[in-house]
């Protein structure tokens, strides 16, 4: 702490019992952060990465300062390139070691599903760094195949084409084959096969074919629609037989070399993974028996991320480690195939989330706080106050541990009665305000007593949340964290500095859209999911920064333009072995003109229309010419400016 700029300030406000250590426990950073995130003695979130084989730690707040110097305002998505590389390495190393230890007689090939994060810089880095491991790409559409074909330089890396494929898609994939790129067409439906066969014949290029199977194994968790009979993807067993027949008739069964199954994303329970692999193995065996050569077993995605840090089989967690995942897959295949004398296939997985989640975080500042503390109350009520107010006031004087429920009921009752009077014009604005204020004071006292209460009702349980502060964050949930809104996803959220001060406020976080859905009010904690997050009181003239972590998967392209908040700034940082860092890529987010043009406004025309309005005002003597100029400038500057709050 010595020498740090704010040490004296921090000292005043820090009860000696608080520490960075306690913050670490409170926010669970060591559990969800794996070894990538932690808190320094200075109370700052640090990221620890490998750079040229050396471990280095950098405080995120330092990177934020670097952004500020470069004119990059909040909110910003920060990508740490080293973390992406480390995840690619971890996955490939874990499979390599499971394969070596089990004496498995084939290798692993990972493919990254582009849909999980399509951002150019992410894909380029996966292609560049992943080429050491022949890490390939999975494409679910023509656009994604075009990305894969242009970015992968290593011809041992696989390209897996899922999704519905038209003739143009198929042609592109066949040309890749001709150039020696291992590009598989995975059949989602039997209807795709005739197109593939026809184009293959026309171009005289043989395809590599895979079949995507609907597994009956069901999966717990959020995204389980991908598995089971009702899955909308994949071939039923019957459809598979049709495909085999058609291939045989076309004399192309030798092209069928891959079995593909995808149980779903974020599979929290290792048991489900094991049973899914086992079922896939049985299909694989069945296809061999039908005379297909096979050779590749693609197990799809599903490798989870422990967003909660609870290491459990809850939806947002996982009850296994990466090593265990790989060992389970390798061993299940061996156990199934060895007794049958089936040679070990190349193991393919399509891990998306587990590869990219860690490397991105959303950083934003807090603009304002609204607390629900009661205002100052008088010692006693004025003579002649309404009976209802008198009653309410006497409830306030009687709140005790043994009557909290009764006081709660009375308080709400009297407050509502006063509101009713107000409705009918029989109470004044001031009387209503006083009633609401006394009620708040009562609820506040009850909330203070709650931790000591033995049994509490549901209404009282919700009280701390109702009374919590609202921290207004400079971001849009719909743009930057769509899964929180759409899927009730939980991401770790915490301040990135001031962590050796005790956070004393209970808060929910609202975004800038002022939409009731635009808030974060579910947080993971050591006690499970809670509805409020502990935060620090704001300090005047000082920014307070929060980070939402593990957001590298699925968040960046699903976002929408709710209230026309556009893309945030995005910064990619590479950390060097001496702890310095470079901004390897900066993307300045949408301007207001950008988002307006997305919904088909013409910013030029809008300026012209505003100019005309201003000109008329000049003519009518409402403003001077000089004022007109000022207003036009403000209009133009706003168009070019950020959609978010600018300081
Ligand atoms: C979405 C998807 C994936 C990625 O799943 P993760 O759980 O993110 O690893 C893999 N394969 C297919 C076919 C997918 O649709």
From TrEMBL:
InterPro entries: Ala_racemase/Decarboxylase_C (IPR009006), Arg_decarb_HB (IPR040634), Arg_decarbox_C (IPR041128), Arg_decrbxlase (IPR002985), De-COase2_N (IPR022644), De-COase2_pyr-phos_BS (IPR022653), Orn/DAP/Arg_de-COase (IPR000183), PLP-binding_barrel (IPR029066). It is an enzyme of class 4 (lyase). SUPFAM superfamilies: Alanine racemase C-terminal domain-like, PLP-binding barrel. It holds the Pfam family Orn_Arg_deC_N. It comes from the Bacteria. One of its GO terms (molecular function) is metal ion binding. GO terms for biological process: L-arginine catabolic process; spermidine biosynthetic process. Keywords: Decarboxylase, Lyase, Magnesium, Metal-binding, Polyamine biosynthesis, Pyridoxal phosphate, Spermidine biosynthesis. Residues 592-645 form the Arginine decarboxylase C-terminal helical domain. This is Arginine decarboxylase. It comes from Methyloprofundus sedimenti.
């Amino acid at each position: 702490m010595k020498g740090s700029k704010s040490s004296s300030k921090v000292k005043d406000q820090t009860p000696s019992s608080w520490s960075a250590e306690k913050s670490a426990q409170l926010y669970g950073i060591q559990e969800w952060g794996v070894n990538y995130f932690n808190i320094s003695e200075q109370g700052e979130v640090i990221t620890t990465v490998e750079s040229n084989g050396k471990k280095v730690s950098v405080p995120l707040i330092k990177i934020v300062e670097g952004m500020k110097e470069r004119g990059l305002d909040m909110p910003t998505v920060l990508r740490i390139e080293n973390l992406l590389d480390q995840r690619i390495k971890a996955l490939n190393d874990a499979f390599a070691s499971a394969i070596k230890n089990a004496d498995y007689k084939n290798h692993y090939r990972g493919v990254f599903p582009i849909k999980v994060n399509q951002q150019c810089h992410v894909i380029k880095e996966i292609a560049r760094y992943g080429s050491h491991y022949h890490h390939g790409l999975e494409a679910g559409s023509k656009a994604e195949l075009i990305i894969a074909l242009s970015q992968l330089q290593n011809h041992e890396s696989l390209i897996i084409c899922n999704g519905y494929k038209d003739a143009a898609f198929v042609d592109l994939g066949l040309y890749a084959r001709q150039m020696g790129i291992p590009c598989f067409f995975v059949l989602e439906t039997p209807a795709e096969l005739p197109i593939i066969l026809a184009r293959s014949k026309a171009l005289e290029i043989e395809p590599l074919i895979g079949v995507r199977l609907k597994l009956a194994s069901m999966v717990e968790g959020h995204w389980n629609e991908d598995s089971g009979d009702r899955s909308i993807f994949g071939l039923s067993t019957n459809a598979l037989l049709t495909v085999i027949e058609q291939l045989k008739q076309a004399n192309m069964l030798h092209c069928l070399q891959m079995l593909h199954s995808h149980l779903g994303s974020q599979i929290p329970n290792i048991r489900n993974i094991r049973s899914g692999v086992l079922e896939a193995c049985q299909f694989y065996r069945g296809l061999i028996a039908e005379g297909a050569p096979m050779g590749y077993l693609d197990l799809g995605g599903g490798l989870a991320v422990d967003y909660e840090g609870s290491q459990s089989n809850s939806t947002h967690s996982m009850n296994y480690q990466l090593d265990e995942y790989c060992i389970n897959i390798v061993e299940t295949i061996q156990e199934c195939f060895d007794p049958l004398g089936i040679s070990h296939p190349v193991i393919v997985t399509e891990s998306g989330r587990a590869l990219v989640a860690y490397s991105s975080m959303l950083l934003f500042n807090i603009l304002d706080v609204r607390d629900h503390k009661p205002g100052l109350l008088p010692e006693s009520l004025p003579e002649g106050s309404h009976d209802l107010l008198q009653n309410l006031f006497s409830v306030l004087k009687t709140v005790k541990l043994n009557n909290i429920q009764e006081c709660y009921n009375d308080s709400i009752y009297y407050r509502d009665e006063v509101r009713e009077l107000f409705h009918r014009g029989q109470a004044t604005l001031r009387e209503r305000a006083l009633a609401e204020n006394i009620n708040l004071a009562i609820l506040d006292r009850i909330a203070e007593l709650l931790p000591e209460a033995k049994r509490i009702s549901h209404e009282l349980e919700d009280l701390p949340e109702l009374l919590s502060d609202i921290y207004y964050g400079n971001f849009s949930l719909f743009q930057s964290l769509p899964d929180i809104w759409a899927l009730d996803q939980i991401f770790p959220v915490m301040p990135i500095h001031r962590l050796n001060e005790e956070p004393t406020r209970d808060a929910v976080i609202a975004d800038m859209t002022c939409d009731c859905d635009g808030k974060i009010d579910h947080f993971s904690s050591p006690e499970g999911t809670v509805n409020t997050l502990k935060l620090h009181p704001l300090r005047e003239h000082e920014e307070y920064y929060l980070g939402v972590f593990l957001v590298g998967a699925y968040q960046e392209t699903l976002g929408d333009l709710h209230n026309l908040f556009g893309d945030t700034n995005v910064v990619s940082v590479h950390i060097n072995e001496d702890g310095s860092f470079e901004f390897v890529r900066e993307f300045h987010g949408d301007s207001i003109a950008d988002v307006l043009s997305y919904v088909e406004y013409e910013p030029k025309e809008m300026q012209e229309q505003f100019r005309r309005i201003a000109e008329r005002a000049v003519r009518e003597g409402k403003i001077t010419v000089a004022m007109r100029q000022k207003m036009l400038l403000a209009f133009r500057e706003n168009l070019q400016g950020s959609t978010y709050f600018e300081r």
